[in-house]
Structures are given as C-alpha cells and as structure tokens.
Amino acid sequence: MSEFQPSLPPNKNMLARDLSSLHFSVNSSQKLLLLPIASIACGKSTLGRLLCTLFPIVHHIQSDDTGRAFKHIVMNQFKTHQIIYADKNNHLKQHRREICQLFRKSYPDGIVLALDWNVTPTQESMDRIGAIAKARVEERGENHQTLTPMKSDYMKVIRMFIMQRDVVDLETEDDGEINYVLDLDIENDPKGNLRLLLNALKWEQPSEEGLLAAEEKVKKVVVLPNENFKPSESTRRNDRGGQGIRDDRNRSYGGSNGDVQN
After folding, report:
1. Please, what is the angle between helix 70-77 and helix 93-106, to 10°?
2. Radius of gyration of the CA atoms of the chain, in A
3. Could you write out the DSSP letters of every residue in 45-81?
4. Is 33 helix (H, G, I), strand (E, B) or coil?
5. Is the Cα torsion angle 43, 175, 67, 65 positive or negative in sign?
6. Residue 84's closest CA among 63, 47, 57, 45?
7. What is the pLDDT along the chain (262 residues), one digit of tens a residue?
8. Where are the alpha helices (DSSP H) in 67-224?
9. At what angle do helices 208-219 and 190-201 cross, to 10 degrees?
10. Are 195 and 237 in contact (CB under 8 A)?
C-alpha cells in the first residue's frame, strides 16, 4: 500500500493569483496601486495609456519622465488620485519593496495588484523575449525617452533587464506587500493584456469602437526625449542599466491626458 502523501497548502504566490477574491470599488476611499513587473518593450506603457484613456479615474505615471523621484511622485499623486498605474519595469525586488512599503505605510488597507509579465532570467527567455523586444524597439524608433536604436545600445539593455530580473516571490519580505498578481504575456498585444486586466478588476470591457478610438489616440502620443539620461546610482552599482533621469521635467498621464499630437 502506498504511503499517504498529504497535499501541501497553497502558498502566497498561488493565493495571490486567485483573482476571484479581488474586489475594488471606485466608490470607496480605498487606494489601488497597479504595479507592472516587466521588461523592455513588453507593452506596459501602451497598456497604461490605453487604460487611463478609457478610464480617466486611472492616473498614469512613467518613471522615464521622473527618474529617481518616481516612487515619491507616485505617493504624492495618491493624495488626489484613487488609482495609479506606476509605469516602471520594477524588475528588481528592491524597486518593488521600496514603492510597496511606502504605499502600505500610507494606505494600510490599499490594494497592490502586480502585473507580472513573467520574464524568467534564462537564456531561453533572452532568445524568445529578446527577439520580440528588439523588433518592438526598432518599430517604435526614436519615440521614446531614453531607449532608442540611435541613442543606445538597446540590445545590451534588453539583455540586462531580462537576465538580471528578480522573479516575483510573495513569500519574501521584498514582495510581501503585494496583494494580487495578474500574469501577462509579452507575446500578447496591449489590447489583449488590457482585457485581462479589466477582467481581473471586474470592470466593463469597452466596445470595439471605443477600444479602437483609444488605440488611435495612444498612437499619437509623442514622447519627449530625455536628454539628461544616465543610469541611476543603483543601476551603476549593479550594472543593470536602463533607467533614465529627468530632473527638469516631471510629466505624468492622468486620465486621457498626455503629450498628444493632434
């Protein structure tokens, strides 16, 4: 007779992916931090712009515009906004820990929903995801603050972001303040990932016409180049690359706002 093997209880990583228990009401005072955990050219900024264009209650802040002040600007904007899409790769556990702990200190009952593009730091990921990222960086051309084909060794940066990524683990102190995790795929287009996010939030899906209109508006966004780009202190120490600094221009997307070329 085989020995009885008790089943192991689900751990925090499994429980956080059960989004059936995620309940957030825009009619409450509760705050919601949407936290991408991504890599270069995965579509996270396009997803953020689509989301805030369709749902103006969402405020979109990009780290490429704010640099080192990013987490403090995010927290300051929570004073007047209920939902913030904190647009940064957040691929390092240090980055996730810092912003989540600040959020939890100010909003103990707030919700942190991580949007995990599931990039694993392996050569297989580099081969598959690196090829997708390369094509997207080349397609968008110079319409980016820091990472463009003409201004950077973009393949080196893509490689660093993939190979030095810290995998999300809610059993650790670094990721312990995350409440829920939504798994996304870099091979999905932003519209597909948007549908997954809206399903998780239990928000109504936009009509096809509304989605197409939002997509056209997002395509007209012109990104200001960051002439002050240089690696942050943590980037230089760890040779992780990629995060730009802009001290003279702090821009964020609120609702449908943004630098849109008409």
Report:
1. 30
2. 18
3. HHHHHHHHHH-TTEEEEEHHHHGGGHHHHHHHHTTT-
4. strand
5. positive
6. 57
7. 455 555 555 689 999 999 999 999 999 999 999 999 998 888 899 999 999 999 999 999 988 778 789 999 999 999 999 999 999 999 999 999 999 999 999 999 999 999 999 888 888 878 888 888 777 777 765 555 556 555 667 778 888 888 889 999 999 999 999 999 999 988 888 999 999 999 999 999 999 999 999 999 887 765 544 444 444 434 333 333 333 323 232 333 344 333 333 3
8. 70-77, 93-106, 123-140, 154-163, 190-201, 208-219
9. 120
10. no
Distance CA 145, CA 250 (A): 12
Tokens 């003279």 -> residue: 248
Do you know the residue count of the chain?
A: 262
